[in-house]
Amino acid sequence: MNTILDVKDLHVSFKTYGGEVQAVRGVSFTVKKGETVAIVGESGCGKSVTAQSIMKLIPNPPGKITSGSILFKGRDLTKISEKEMRKIRGSDISMIFQDPMTSLNPTLTIGDQITEAILQHEPVVTKKEAQFRACEMLGEVGIANPKERLKQFPHQFSGGMRQRIMIAMALVCNPSILIADEPTTALDVTIQAQIIDLFKKIQRNTGVAIIMITHDLGVVAKLADRINVMYAGKVVESGTTSEIFYNPQHPYTKGLLNCVPRLDLERGQPLIPIPGSPPDLFAPPIGCAYSSRCEFAMEVCDAYQPGRTLVAEGHEVNCWLQDQRAKQVKFHLREKTYS
Amino acid sequence: MLKYIGKRFISMMITIWVIVTLTFFLMHAIPGSPFNQERNTNDTVRKNLEAHYHLDENLFVQYGIYLKSLLQFDFGPSIKQSSTSVNELLSRGFPISFELGSVALLFSIVSGIALGIFAALRHNGVIDYGAMTLAVIGISVPNFIMATLLIQVVAVDLKLLPVATWASYKHMILPALALSMSPLAIIARLTRSSMLEVLTQDYIRTARAKGLSPFKIVVKHALRNALLPVITILGTLVAAVLTGSFVIEKIFAIPGMGQYFVSSINDRDYPVIMGTTVFYSTLLIFLLFLVDIAYGIIDPRIKLHKKEGE
Amino acid sequence: MVLPNRTGNEKRQFPPDELFIPKKRKARNADAIVRPGLSYWQDARRRLVKNKLAMAGLVSLILLIIMAIFGPILSPYEVTKQALTESNLPPSASHWFGTDNLGRDVFTRTWYGARISLFVGVMAALVDFVIGVIYGGISGYKGGRTDHYMMRIVEILYGLPYLLMVILLMVVMGPGLLTIIVALSITGWTGMARIVRGQVLQLKHYEFVLASKTFGGKTRRIIRKHLLPNTMGPIIVQMTLTVPTAIFAEAFLSFIGLGVQAPYASWGVMASDALSTILTGQWWRLFFPAFFISLTMFAFNVLGDGLQDALDPKLRR
Prior knowledge:
The structure holds 3 protein chains of 3 kinds.
Chain A: E1 3-16, E2 19-32, E3 36-40, H1 47-54, E4 63-72, E5 75-76, H2 82-88, E6 93-96, H3 110-121, H4 127-140, H5 146-149, H6 159-171, E7 177-181, H7 189-206, E8 209-214, H8 217-223, E9 226-231, E10 234-240, H9 241-246, H10 251-258, H11 299-303, E11 308-312, E12 315-318
Parallel strand pairs in A: 3-8, 3-9, 6-7, 7-8
Antiparallel strand pairs in A: 1-2, 1-4, 4-5, 9-10, 10-12, 11-12
Chain B: H1 2-29, H2 43-53, H3 59-71, H4 86-121, H5 126-140, H6 143-157, H7 169-199, H8 202-209, H9 214-251, H10 257-266, H11 270-298, H12 306-309
Helix pairs in contact in B: 1-11, 4-5, 4-7, 4-9, 4-10, 5-7, 6-7, 6-9, 7-9, 8-9, 9-10, 9-11, 10-11
Chain C: H1 40-50, H2 52-74, H3 106-142, H4 144-159, H5 162-173, H6 177-204, H7 207-214, H8 219-255, H9 267-273, H10 277-280, H11 283-311
Helix pairs in contact in C: 1-11, 2-3, 2-11, 3-4, 3-6, 3-8, 3-11, 4-6, 5-6, 6-8, 7-8, 8-9, 8-11, 9-11
């Protein structure tokens, strides 16, 4: 009963001039009350599309949820009307975006933009009360002099401040899920750390569940309870944060971890980039999408989709290396060269 | 903000000065113009001109006197209608031109914006194609052609409205329509494209994520931003309506300033040409100045160097 | 432990054992560009051709040019030849577009008017281009103080009401085809200068220019070889959109009696002469010049819009 969001086999595609891009190809994951779930992957892997699909914010046309379901507190969001969806957006599920510089309307005051969500979803609330709540919320996210600042315009705030405002705006109606789409990517590193701390604090205080979309495993390590690693529109590995970090199974997850600077490793140990680029999703590969970049690719990987394997409690991976027959295969690893 | 206004004001004054000076020296450079001491006009007129422009003095003294009289809003005498001055012509003709011009402008702004918004919201739909076809026609058909076409069809063939002259509000419809077609088309196109761009902005997605209705999103979040570029071209449109009124008033036989101006051109009534040019230019530049300030007020991110960055 | 697929809409697959061998790596190119590489100009042309409205404009334009060249030649009548006995004839086999009140052939005069309109339009655009490129190029390339002052001047000129200034100049210089072009150019080049300057400023610091400078390229060579080809897009668009403005201005001036003078035929003169026919019913005298001036402006406008879309690198797909 703790599960509030259950995404099942979600498929999303976009019609373009070149044909249909299958951006999300069967993604499943769940979110429990008050936890933080991360979706991690490179740009273009479908993680943002997944997030926007939950809010049904994909521009349609060209985008469309082609199959699958999104169960939010038992209701299938893919089936309800736009009008019903509007009631959920911003009040039950809210979202913040990557670029705080462009995500706020430059011609409206901060106060206007925060209170309008309250006034939209709670018609009984007066303007004054809404303003009071907006003020409280701004204080909550760490903005000094909230009362005066409500009257200011977005360009009078720094990037970090604006992201705080975005967070305040998203939380002002007490949603049960907050989707954060690369919330720290556009910010300076020091500001990033502050925003991550802020997420922790608000989660403690409000018990909101957070879906954190990011390409940065560093962000995830501090924040997430569970991680879904996405590649080319599919979840390739999922598990608790410690399982993913200390017992990664999928070569792609390992590759991602090798890209993260770590303090616990010896000095001078290089970061290892993953060579190549993700496949074209106009015509997704028949087998494992990662096989063209994978060091441990086998002939089977190109021809067949790998099934799911349960590695540990709650830790699943989709990879042919988990097959018994793969244990005997000897790989001739390429020399790693660094220049 | 004050600094911004001050800066714009100074640049406005410079532009006006350039126009006044240009006009003055150009008029004195014309061979055969009455400013050149050529005795080809009648005596009364001669006297008027002498009295007003001090033609016996040297050119720069004349220029100084001219500037001084302009500062007192005195635009000098006419040579063809010896008893009247440019000021009298203006007071007779300008109210009519002003009425026609503002009706045309208002109509073109309101319907242009409305058309642009609907086209953008129904992007690639029937309304969009219809509106844009109308807009392309509006831009392509010169206003004097549009005017004759309207007279032919609406007034002569269908007999719905009077053909010409200036008597009742019915007389105003056709000239105002002819005058407003091309500004309307320009506004509609600009509104549409800027609306389309604004609708793809991140803050529109934020507004959607808050659960606002499409109507609220358009009115509160998109419109204001989409109209900013429209404001910047308002000045140009006023200029288009103003110069357009020259021909429209001629075609519809409306006794406005535009018609006086055209006939002064045909009669080579140089003092009237000079006076009207200075008057209209100053008016236009002043309106441009107002538009700039309005922009500064509406857009909270006052950009001093907006023009340069375009 | 192998789990079943969660949904089962993917076929349960049992791959044969022999596939469990390391993948044979072909000479693979992970970064291969999937779609064929098109150059900037190729891509622009492809997009322009796809734009139906712009193509309609281009076709009408070509037809108009052909008729402007051959129309007056094809016709047995002269432009200014009066034949009072044949005045105000409706369109017929001998006079395709009818005749005017002085018995002149409207067909001949219409295409003669096309010559004037196209000539004025193209010349105005060319002169604007030359002045604009020189002025804007110098301003943008030199930068600093020179740029500042040169742009102040442009700003002031830009603020002047265009058509009013043209009228003033025409009054001073007297009517005529050449003076129209001069008057249009004196007032019209500022827009082009601003665009060129903007482009040059943007491109000035690009690496290929720096590279060329390090290899000892002369300033003039840098401008000609590197800067200009890269700034052509917006300039072409601006030129295309200058043409209809100039054509309109010429017709407007001729209409109020300041442009091309009778007996020569310009569309503006013809429309002005035909004003009285609204009440007398010789529709052909107004219709043909009116139609073709509108068509010409339409053609240039939609072509300009199409070029703008096609040459905008942001819209590249």
